[in-house]
Structures are given as C-alpha cells and as structure tokens.
Amino acid sequence: MARIDYFNDPTAPPANSVVPSVTAAIRNDAGDILLIHKVDNDLWALPGGGHDAGEFLTDTAVREVREETGLEVEVIRLIGTYTNPAHVMAYDDGEVRQQFSLCFECCWVGGQPREDGSETKEVRWVSPADLDSLSIHPSMRLRIDHALDEKRTSPYLG
Known about the structure:
alpha+beta, Nucleoside Triphosphate Pyrophosphohydrolase, 6-stranded mixed β-sheet, 3-stranded antiparallel β-sheet
C-alpha cells in the first residue's frame, strides 16, 4: 500500500488514526546500523512496523525485523518514544495515521540480511558516516541519531 509522509506540512490531511508501531536499531560489530529501503515511501529506515493485538511490544520488534530483514534479534533496551501530531502518513486506502512509535535497540543473534520483496527492496549495513547520502525521513533520522548516541540511556528491558 502506497503512502505519503507529511512532516510539519500545513496542507497535510488531519489524522484519523493512531497505531502503535516499533522500530529496531541493530548494529554490527563494525558499528554499522541496519537500514531497509522501504517500498511504500521509497525512503531508508530502521526496520519496524505496526503492533498487533495480543503481542508484547518487544515481540513486535522481533517479528517485524524477522519479516523485513530475515534477521533474528533480541531486544536490549528502549531508545525512545516518538509521537508527533505534525507527522502524519496518508495511505491510499484513506487512513491518515499520526506517528506513534517506540524504538528499541536490538542485538543480532541469527539469520542473514535479505529483502522481503513486499516491504523492503534493499537491506544494508550503513556506516554512520554514510547516513547523509541516503534519503531518510527527518523523524526516522532522529531515531537513528538517538540509537547511535552512546550517551543516551534508557531503562533495560530484561
């Protein structure tokens, strides 16, 4: 399903839904971060997606990473909570969703990166120095920057 992201845009349609979602920040031993090239908006992002009823939010992160990248991960900690009424996503079915997302740091424990074909057209380990060369939504870039900031702390999710 195609979507248009609006960010601080006075012409954006009003939100008609809020769906909890997650993103996952995964780094390799070289310090690179795993990003996906999304089919729906043609932007680079952390893997993630919508929370399903009956799931723990941390299970949503594990499921979404597996679906979009083929990797098995364990959740380490909460990086942050992101919600902004000025960031809405308009889908072609008429839904206009206000951003509401929790970002988790995850540890790669198995699997190999691969595209899923329906949501991701590329999966890539990206050096922090190369982030500026990619098209990344400002809201997503904030999460990535927070994930890369070693000084940020959040409670452990044991």
